[in-house]
Amino acid sequence: MNSEEAYRKQFYRVRFNRALEPVKTMLLYKKKSSTSSQWLNLVDKTRTGVLNKPTEYLNGELPENEVVTFLIDNIFRNFIKTYSGKLSPRALGYPQAIS
User: Fold this and answer.
1) Mean pLDDT score of the chain, rounded to an integer?
2) Which of 50, 48, 57 is nearest to 93 (CA)?
3) 35 has a pLDDT exceeding 80
4) Is the pTM of this model over 0.90?
5) CB of 66 closer than 8 Å to CB of 39
6) Are 99 and 1 in contact (CB under 8 A)?
7) Which residue, among 73, 50, 63, 76, has the nearest Cα to 7 in the 3D structure?
C-alpha cells in the first residue's frame, strides 16, 4: 500500500469512527441490559446494517465498497475488542485486519 492509499484509508477511518459514535453509544447503553450473547448479536446486526446501507450512517462521499467494508469491519472489530471482554471478534467471523 502506498502512502496516498494509507492516508486515504486513515482519512475515512477517522470520518467513519466519528459518524458511528452515536451508534456505538447506543450499543454501549444496550450492553447494560443485555446478556453478552444478546449484545454481540446486536453489534453484529448493527455492523451488517451499516454495511448494507452505508449512506444512512456515513455522511458525505464514500470510497469504493471494498474500502467501506474493510473499514467498517475494522471499526466494529476494535469496538468489540474494547468493550466485549468475552468473545474475540474473530470468533464472530470478522475478517482479519489487513493493515
Assistant:
1) 87
2) 48
3) yes
4) no
5) no
6) yes
7) 63
